[in-house]
TrEMBL record:
Keywords assigned: ATP-binding, Glutamine amidotransferase, GMP biosynthesis, Ligase, Nucleotide-binding, Purine biosynthesis
Quaternary structure and partners: Homodimer.
GO MF, any single term: GMP synthase (glutamine-hydrolyzing) activity
UniProt: ATP binding residues: S219, G220, G221, V222, D223, S224, A225
The protein, known as: GMP synthase [glutamine-hydrolyzing]
Reaction it catalyzes: XMP + L-glutamine + ATP + H2O = GMP + L-glutamate + AMP + diphosphate + 2 H(+)
Gene: guaA
Superkingdom of the source species: Bacteria
Active site residues of this protein: C78 (nucleophile), H165, E167
Length: 520
């Protein structure tokens, strides 16, 4: 693999994704991993990521200078570029001149790294320190008005570096820089595809599971649907899917999963109606983290009970008698893994129900075939496995469901109000053809807030609904979607006319960060 060494910014994931977009397999490793361990992964190239530190700061993350002697091609980006310069004898200075945002650079297009590029171009910069002099043996390939050395190359040793962020779309020719490095600098072929992923994962699943029994919690979302389809491909009827109706679903959702998924895949499905159990456990709870923990716990309880039933049913069919269900499939994605295993000091923003919410005494062994994939890759795998388009392109919906979209305690009446408003918003967005344009549009009920309105001839004292349409590539960051006013108007009119108790519709115009996508 290409190893992306993470120096602690959010850019490492983006770099890894862009490398895969060039059809080269990549993995992220923390900068704290020893060089020996990195080399044991047999890397085809290293990319050193950007990071928030200054190379001069106390305790600034460092690089083992032997990495540059290992014979493996290296690309240093931003902080990684400065580390490289520092380690190899260049000059990195605290000049006080900062560059942040879109910046013009002049490049020399006759070197491998920048071959074929326009001489003046716009790139995305974000740095305080700057490189004044390149190390011996390196050519300087680019400069800006502030930085004399903005890109370097030692073609012979296959060592390259850029001060800017080629992984960011604002760097107009960024992807070409990465591809030049991968294909020409490191001599790699772009032949990694989602087809490889399926083949590989099917083999891995078979060897992990053997002839054991497996259950998979199906949420109706893309991740669990694709994970289940992969496991089904690998071990067929050893798999039983469990769909938990926790009473926190949107209108029509349970029926959709029951009919569409089974029809599309032929996978055996158990539907568990656990609405009373979840609502009782959530009674009177309004703290977001408490809600999430309760829901995570109840999910596992339901899975455990379902696993016992699967065993009992198997026994009734007189197959292997007391064989336990040992494996639980989860649709965990690469960003979840990186975030939960990743970077020291990474704050726990919220407990995603299937990552932070698992009990310690979990009796299942986890099967997580999507652990190395990003969302867009999961969609590609789903499509290749023949899942219907509507399923593959379904917008994300959180496992804890509408419970984390009711700000306040959850009860049946509030769920009904939110469900009705949500159904209207979804219907209008679909009608307007906007489903692919937005990443998702949470609809939130501010259950503890009331405002005065006038409806019909009288005064009302109802609750606001908030629309939270967002655009995103991977949910790590997001921007609010500029929906057309007439669509917003239709949604607002319909919700206030058709949903009792709601007399106001508000639009959330916050990006992530600082807001998260969901309100809780
Ligand atoms: P936030 O609110 O963290 O959401 O910006 C990022 C993405 O994750 C979804 N989300 C969840 N998905 N279990 C899930 O399966 C959860 O507990 C959970 N919390 C948030 C959210 O809908 C968005 O797509």
């Amino acid at each position: 693999p290409v190893l992306v060494v993470d120096y602690g910014a959010q850019y490492a994931q983006l770099i890894a994704r862009r490398v895969r977009e060039a059809n080269v397999y990549s993995e992220i490793v923390p900068h704290t991993m020893s060089l020996e361990k990195m080399l044991a992964k047999d890397p085809s190239a290293f990319i050193l990521s950007g990071g928030p530190a200054s190379v001069y700061a106390d305790g600034a993350p460092a690089v083992d200078s032997e990495l540059f002697e290992s014979g493996v091609p290296v690309l240093g980006i931003c902080y990684g570029f400065q580390l490289m310069n520092q380690a190899l004898g260049g000059e990195v200075a605290h000049t006080g001149a900062r560059e942040y945002g879109g910046t013009a650079v002049t490049v020399s297009p006759d070197n491998t790294l920048l071959a074929g590029q326009p001489e003046s171009q716009n790139v995305w910069m974000s740095h305080g320190d700057s490189v004044q002099k390149a190390p011996d043996g390196f050519d300087v390939l680019a400069s800006s008005s502030v930085v004399p050395v903005a890109a370097i190359a030692d073609t012979e040793r296959a060592l390259y570096g850029v001060q800017w962020h080629p992984e960011v779309k604002h760097s107009t020719h960024g992807q070409a820089v990465l591809e030049n490095f991968l294909y020409h600098g490191a001599g790699l072929k772009g032949d990694w595809t989602t087809g490889n992923v399926i083949e590989e994962q099917v083999a891995v699943i078979r060897s992990q599971v053997g002839d054991g029994k497996v259950i998979c919690g199906l949420s109706g979302g893309v991740d669990s649907a694709v994970a289940a389809a992969l496991v089904h491909e690998a071990v067929g009827d050893q798999l039983t899917c469990v769909f938990v109706d926790h009473g926190l679903l949107r209108a029509g959702e349970a029926e959709q999963v029951e009919t569409d998924y089974v029809a599309a895949t032929g996978i055996r499905l158990k539907v568990v109606d656990a609405a009373d159990q979840f609502l009782a456990a959530l009674d009177g709870v309004s703290d977001p983290e408490t809600k999430r923990k309760i829901i995570g716990r109840e999910f596992i309880r339901v899975f455990e009970a379902a696993a016992r039933e699967v065993v009992a049913e198997g026994a009734a069919e007189a197959s292997s008698e007391d064989e336990q269900v040992r494996f639980l499939v989860q649709g965990t994605l690469y960003p979840d893994v990186v975030e939960s295993g990743g970077g020291e000091g990474a704050a726990n923003i919220k407990s995603h129900h299937n990552v932070g919410g698992l009990p310690d005494d979990l009796q299942f062994e986890l099967v997580e075939p999507l652990r190395t994939l990003f969302k867009d890759e999961v969609r590609a795998v789903g499509a290749e496995l023949g899942l219907p388009e509507a399923m593959v392109w379904r917008q994300p919906f959180p496992g804890p469901g509408l419970a984390i979209r009711i700000v306040g305690a959850v009860n049946q009446a509030r769920l009904e109000t939110l469900r009705a408003a949500d159904a209207i918003a979804r219907e209008e967005l679909t009608k307007a053809g906007l489903d692919r344009e937005i990443w998702q549009c949470p609809v939130v009920l501010l259950a503890d807030v009331r405002s005065v309105g006038v409806q019909g001839d009288g005064r009302t004292y109802g609750h606001p609904i908030v629309l939270r349409p967002v655009s995103s590539e991977d949910a790590m960051t997001a921007d609010w979607t500029r929906l057309p006013y007439d669509v917003l108007a239709r949604i607002s009119t319909r919700i206030t006319n058709e949903v009792a108790d709601v007399n106001r519709v508000a639009l959330d115009v916050t990006s992530k960060p600082p807001g998260t996508i969901e309100w809780e």
